[in-house]
Design goal:
By secondary structure, this protein is α+β, with helices and mostly antiparallel strands. The protein is built from 19 helices and 9 strands.
Length: about 500
C-alpha cells in the first residue's frame, strides 16, 4: 500500500490531475490486477450476507416503498429487484436503489470502522445492478466488487467525515463509482470524473442518524449507489465533474472537512497490487449498529453473573469516542432514551440495546425493536440507569492498526443497590475475524437460511446459495441468478402511490 497525502490547494497552485486523490483512485480502479482467491471467497460471503438481510426486510414499509418506486421504472435488459420474479427487470439505478434499501434497512450487514464508519456491503447493490444490466459475468462482478470494497475501506481509513457531521455515504458514492468503472473496464479519465461527480452529489449531513431517525437511514446509502450509477452514465457520455473534488480551494476538504490547513493520509494499492481490503471488514451476528456488537455479546455473558436485574443501581459503559458520542449518552440525544423512539433510533442507542440484551440474553432483529418490547416498564427503568463515558484507552484501541490491540467494545461497570460492583470487558464481537467465533462460510449460509426462513421457499434458498457459491463460474448474462424470489403475498401490504405510479 502507498500512503497519499491529501490537502487543499489554492487555484493558483494548479494541482495536476495525476496528483489528485480522484485520479489516484481511478488508477486503482482501472488497474486490471487479478483478484486473490481468498478475496473472491469473501465477496461470495458478503453477497450471501446482503441477501440474508434483504430477505428479512423484504416486507418492511421502507423496503416496500422503495420497491414500488423501482417497479415504476421497467427496463430491458435492466436489473432484478429482490423478491420479484427475475424476468421482471427495472432500470439499473432503480434496482440498485430498491435493493440498497432492502440491504440497509435492518442495519445487519457488514461494517468497517476506522477514521470513519462504513458499511462496505452497500457497494454490492449498485455494482451488481450495473453488472446485470450490461450482461457481465461473475468474474467481472468479482473484480468490480473488489474495487468497491478497496476504495471504501481506504477512504474510511484516511478521512474522517463524522467529526464534521458529514454522513459516511460521502465515501460510498466514490467507491461505488470506482467499482462500476472496474466492472465496465472504463479508462482512468472516465473513472476520475465519475468518482468526483459521485462525491459531490452524495455529500449529506449526519442528521440522518440523529434525533428522530427515519427510514432515510436505510435510503441514504441506496441513494448514494443510485447516484453513483447516474454519475458513471453521465461521464461515459462525455460530461465532467468539479475538479479537484477533494483538494480544491473551495472544495470538500477546505469547507466541509478540517479546512485549508488539514492533511489527510489515504492508503491505496500500488500498480499491480491486489485489492484485498474486503478482508479487513467484518459482518454482524446481531441486527444492531456495529459498535454494539461486542457489547451485546458482553451483556449476554454478564447477565447470569448479575442475576436479579432489578437490583442494579447503575451501569456505566466505558468505551471509545465513537461509541460514546454516536450511540451513547455523549450524543446528548434524548431520543436515544425514549421508549417511543423509532426502530432506527433504538438501533443507535447502546443504552437501550445493552438493557434488552441483558434482559433477554441475546438480540433479535425484529422482536428486540418492537414497540411493546421498548415500552416494558422494567426495561425502561434499566435502560435509564445506563450511561456511557469515553475512555481514552478504548479510543486508542479503536484506531489501532495492531490486530492484537484493535477493539470495538468496552468495559462495563455494574453497581448493585447493595454496593457490589461487577465488571467485565470485551474488545471484539464473537463473530469478528479475530473474535471468539469468527464467521466463516457456513455461518453466512446459516444466517441466510435463518433470516429467510418462512420468506423464501426452501428450493429457492438452495438455488440462491448454489448460484452465489458458483459466482466465479457464472457466465456473461447469468447474474440474475443472484436475485431471490418470494411469493407476492410475502412482499408486504399495498403501498400508497406516489408520483411515479400516480395513475396506477
Amino acid at each position: 500500500m502507498k500512503i497519499h497525502d491529501v490537502r487543499t490547494y489554492k487555484s493558483a497552485e494548479k494541482l495536476a490531475r495525476e496528483d489528485q486523490l480522484a485520479w489516484k483512485i481511478a488508477e486503482v480502479a482501472a488497474d486490471p490486477v487479478a483478484v486473490d482467491a481468498d478475496v473472491t471467497d469473501m465477496i461470495i460471503n458478503r453477497i450471501i450476507d446482503n441477501a440474508s438481510v434483504a430477505a428479512a426486510s423484504v416486507a418492511r414499509r421502507p423496503v416496500a416503498s422503495a420497491r414500488a418506486q423501482a417497479m415504476a421504472h421497467p427496463y430491458k435488459p435492466g436489473a432484478t429487484v429482490f423478491g420479484v420474479d427475475s424476468g421482471t427487470t427495472v432500470s439499473p439505478e432503480w434496482a440498485a436503489y430498491a435493493n440498497g434499501v432492502a440491504v440497509r434497512e435492518l442495519d445487519f450487514h457488514d461494517t468497517y470502522l476506522a477514521a470513519d464508519y462504513s458499511h462496505p456491503g452497500d457497494n454490492i447493490p449498485p455494482i451488481l445492478a450495473v453488472a446485470q444490466h450490461t450482461g457481465k459475468s461473475g468474474a467481472d462482478l468479482i473484480r468490480g466488487l473488489a474495487t468497491g470494497y478497496e476504495i471504501q475501506v481506504d477512504l474510511v481509513t484516511g478521512i474522517c467525515l463524522h467529526e464534521h457531521k458529514i454522513d459516511h455515504i460521502a465515501h460510498l458514492g466514490p467507491s461505488a463509482a470506482a467499482g462500476i468503472g472496474t466492472l465496465l473496464g472504463l479508462d482512468t479519465e472516465t473513472i476520475y470524473q465519475a468518482v468526483q461527480q459521485a462525491l459531490h452529489i452524495t455529500t449529506t449531513t449526519r442528521q440522518s442518524r440523529k434525533g428522530e431517525i427515519s427510514s432515510w437511514k436505510a435510503y441514504a446509502p441506496a441513494f448514494a449507489g443510485k447516484m453513483a450509477i447516474e454519475a458513471v452514465d453521465r461521464v461515459m457520455r462525455g460530461e465532467g465533474a468539479p475538479s479537484p473534488a477533494w483538494e480544491g480551494e473551495d472544495g470538500f476538504i477546505a469547507y466541509l472537512l478540517s479546512g485549508p490547513g488539514a492533511l489527510y493520509r489515504v492508503p491505496l494499492p500500488g500498480k499491480g497490487e491486489a485489492k484485498r481490503a474486503i478482508l479487513d471488514t467484518y459482518t454482524k451476528e446481531h441486527s444492531a449498529e456495529y459498535q454494539s456488537q461486542a457489547l451485546i455479546d458482553l451483556a449476554r455473558r454478564m447477565g447470569p453473573k448479575i442475576g436479579d436485574l432489578s437490583q442494579i443501581d447503575s451501569i456505566v459503559i466505558h468505551t471509545s469516542h465513537h461509541t460514546h458520542y454516536v450511540i451513547g449518552t455523549g450524543a446528548n440525544d434524548p431520543q436515544k432514551m425514549d421508549p417511543k423512539a423509532s426502530r432506527e433510533t433504538l438501533d443507535h442507542s447502546i443504552m437501550y440495546i445493552f438493557a434488552v440484551a441483558l434482559e433477554d440474553g441475546g438480540w433479535h432483529h425484529e422482536k428486540s425493536y418492537a414497540p411493546e418490547r421498548a415500552n416494558r416498564p422494567e426495561t425502561v427503568a434499566l435502560w435509564h440507569k445506563i450511561t456511557t463515558t469515553e475512555d481514552p484507552e478504548w479510543t486508542r484501541r479503536y484506531h489501532s492498526q495492531d490486530p492484537k490491540e484493535k477493539a470495538f467494545g468496552g468495559r462495563v461497570v455494574v453497581t448493585l443497590k447493595n454496593g457490589q460492583v461487577i465488571e467485565d470487558e470485551l474488545a471484539l464481537a464473537d463473530a469478528h475475524p479475530d473474535g471468539a467465533r469468527p464467521f466463516v462460510r457456513e455461518n453466512y449460509k446459516q444466517k441466510f437460511l435463518t433470516l429467510s426462513d418462512g420468506i423464501i421457499a426452501p428450493a429457492e434458498q438452495t438455488r440462491f446459495l448454489q448460484a452465489a457459491e458458483a459466482l466465479a463460474d457464472l457466465k456473461a448474462g447469468d447474474l440474475a441468478a443472484l436475485n431471490f424470489v418470494v411469493e407476492p403475498g410475502r412482499l408486504g401490504g399495498p403501498r400508497p402511490t406516489g408520483i411515479f405510479d400516480f395513475n396506477a
